[in-house]
Specification:
103 residues; alpha/beta; Rossmann fold; four-stranded parallel sheet; 3 helices
């Protein structure tokens, strides 16, 4: 799936109350990538988003799919500690896994 050098997943609450204040890719994450200008540093970043619905099992399923099938390298903006912990169970950083940036 990813054609970028650093495919990045954004996992947050995008439904229910979160839907009224967040777009599928929140401006903060998109803006940070844009401001960093990865192409000027010789690589590309692809952003994808998913709604964890504030449920650790849903977040873990998304992380598993991203790591195993979609080759996502990093998950950012996970705003729930239980979901971050569930995500890390599938690809610990010690195994050369992804970075987690908690927003």
């Amino acid at each position: 799936m990813p054609s970028a050098d650093l495919p990045t997943g954004q996992q947050n609450r995008l439904s229910q109350q979160g839907a009224t204040i967040r777009s599928p890719l929140p401006n903060g994450l998109s803006k940070a990538v844009e401001d960093f200008a990865p192409s000027a540093h010789g690589f590309a970043v692809e952003l994808v988003a998913a709604d964890h619905q504030q449920k650790p099992d849903v977040g873990a399923d998304i992380a598993r799919q991203w790591f195993d099938r979609d080759e996502i390298d990093m998950i950012a903006d996970v705003n729930n500690t239980a979901i971050t912990s569930a995500d890390q169970a599938f690809r610990p950083m010690a195994d050369g896994g992804c970075s987690f940036i908690r927003g």
